[in-house]
Amino acid sequence: PIWRELEADIPIPILNVDEVCQLIRQAGGVAIWAHPHESELDPERLAHWLRQFKQAGLDGVEAHRSKLSSAQREQIAQSAGQAGLLVSGGSDYHDDDYTPHGIGGADVPLEVMAPIDDLIRARGGYTDVRQIPFPESKTASASERFWASRSRSPK
Question: How far apart are CA 51 and CA 84, in angstroms?
């Protein structure tokens, strides 16, 4: 992919957890800690950080991922529940080279989605791109016109 060949010298602002969670919530989103297992925390430290991040505004944590064993999934989900956080998951699909298991390869239980969708709706966010209102424009790009037509299509 072309993005692997590009280089850029763009300054990236560093935000703390509180600021990140606030921005996500203001946008109608749900703040989820993805890949917590990559922090290589023992269960006690993970539970500590989940409680700390919950106080900072975190809504949930990724527990269902193809790279995790069932024991790891259970441990993360249990720690999330004890901290009062939602549980999420995903395949983390980028492309076939990066993610050989493909889209949907994480076996995420469907019941984890309802509370996340409910929270997004409660915050005024969108759970379907077809719901996003796009203004009419004679100068819109092809992709903007595509998404605008999809948002007006019958559901």
Answer: 8
